[in-house]
Amino acid sequence: MRLLSLARRLYSARPFAFKHIIGYQHPSLFSAQPEIRCHFFGAFRQPSVRHCSTIPPKLPFFSSGNSTSYEIINFDKCVDTLREKYHDGVNEFVGIAQKASDFGSGDEAILFLDECGVKPNQELVFLVIWELRDQWKLAYLLFKWGEKCKCLEENTWCLMIWILGNHSKFSTAWSLIRDLLQMSTDIQEAVLIMIDRYAAANNAGKAIQTFQILEKFSMSPDQRTLLTFLNILCKHGFIEEAEEFMLINKKLFPLEIDGFNIILNGWCNIVVDIFEAKRVWREMSKCCIEPNGTSYSHMISCFSKVRNLFDSLRLYDEMQKRGWVPGLEVYNSLVYVLTCENCVKEALKIIDKVKHMGLRPDSSTYNLMICPLCESSKLDEARSILALMEEDNTSPTIETYHAFLASASLEGTVEVLNTMRKAGVGPNGETFLLILDRFMKLKQPETALTIWLEMKQYEVVPESAHYSLLVGGLLECRLYSKARELYVEMKSNGIDDPGLRKFLEPTGPRGQGDVSNPEHTKKGKLVKHERHKVIRNEKHRR
Prior knowledge:
This protein is mainly α. Helix content is 63%, strand content 1%. It is globular, with a radius of gyration of 29 Å. Keywords: Repeat. Belongs to the PPR family. P subfamily.
């Protein structure tokens, strides 16, 4: 209640700042009576078409944004549990597998693997295929060799289907699923992986069609399979399709709170569309679905991301009145929105309350204060929060230091990089990509080149994104000789960028495309002139 009173006082003191948040009402999202003027929370309490008979919970419930997970196999976790046991053997076997790719036929390559002297087992084959996931042909060769040696488990089949889907080799992946059917193996997880890969390939129609053909495999999808399917669609941005599918099939799969929470999570945390989130909330009321703690967590998270302090605190108060005890993710959302609205003291009080409740603030809690403070160039306050973070024995993460780098000078950047190295949290390639992009946007190419030299001292190997960003920025700043020098270094490292090639490589016998001559460029773009044509200025034409 005290926080809600604070929000009301802020609204009274700054009504114009809050007007765009709680005063505006989208005509298609609220009541059809234009003469009724109400705030957003009135939309939550609109009378529904049907009258629901529900019993309010008597005991408090703890909410959690991830209370029930509807995910497919997490291959990263599987690899982490096995990597320590087979680390050296995997690297050695990957090198042997690379040599097998030199053979002309698959039979010769498999014969070479048979004679390499490595004794295969299920875990080793799984790890080697994972390491070769970017080379699908070689991974498929190892898979076939493992099948010949009878060293394949169900997770390995799913991993190979996932790799083939990543490279859009869906027909080959379906052949593996047919092989599993002939072996009388449960293919539900494999089909869900196919759905996930279709959605990742931006093909929602194929993903939905794949779910619908489960019945052709004599498999009746249950409620959990449906929720996993909805979660896959939402995760890849197909939230409208997921909601439509859920509502159309409500006779086969009765509407439940978990399904609405998946849709709500999509609008609140993946797309961050507050209008759609409010519409789904009202749709829940029409379908007689009572929101639970997870529903409130998603809505509070969405309001905080759009920096709507008033409704974030109002829903937090309503959540407690209905008997749901907020989890740490709710308090993290409040900490963020309070900091964004210059209520740092109140955000610190939230952290103290979390500690008194027996919850431990994590690195995300403090990062959600540090990031908006750094964005507002309040570096002193951000450093004080960092000091408080270290006093609470919470280790800063790489995101913590990235927040400070977003507004640091050259000297400050070097200082942050040294601190990151001492703390053992980087810097990595993403760190330098962020720094180079910032200084290039500030039109400071000399500073960016200094950071480029520092990058090599931190043993970070430049990748294609680093070269493309730096060379492109130098071209925009008309530093053509330095851009060409880095482009030659980029090519010598086996990296190519077609977008830069047309600017930095000759396009004809006389090299009209060479940007080393500034007269043939204009604002970083080539100006092609016809051969043997004299270019005259306006005075000579007259």
